[in-house]
Known about the structure:
This protein has seven helices and five strands. By secondary structure, the chain is mainly alpha-helical.
Amino acid sequence: MVIVNKTDSLRSGLRPLLDKTLENALSHRIEKEFPRIGGPRIRKLCAEMILEVVHSHIRAKDCLNHGQVIWTAVSRNHPPARRQRIADTDLVSVILDLSTPEDIKSRMDRKPDIQRKLHKALRLCRQAYEQGGVLSNFDLSELLTTSDSGNLRLILNSLFFACLLIQLSQSDKCMGLQF
Length: 179
């Protein structure tokens, strides 16, 4: 008669290694900080949802090329309502071409600053939109390092008409501007 050991020592020794995950660490932290939130399934679900948000915002360095930047934009599917804080809206991580060979060539060709910035602003907005986001006026001013409000106003006025032409969205909002 063969006696079968009900516990496999190799499996029981290695099983804890499988549980060393970020998801389990989050679940444990949720249990410590919020003991009344629920049982293990609720904590696991909360940890999964947190990781989903984290993974949607973190991009690997390998995804970026020279001249690109990762920027957090407002989701185009859920733009903020009036008086709604950005912290309470859906955000998406987008990769934008901050500097391209065309940008450098236009500087070498001594094109007017406003024309270069307008072209860059349109490109950035289009790229963000294609990745599911929209950029605000302040995003553009930060990305374009524009501090002169008159210059920014001229760009935004041009963007207003450009939005009408390229029809970035079917709704009545385009990059935070209301038509």
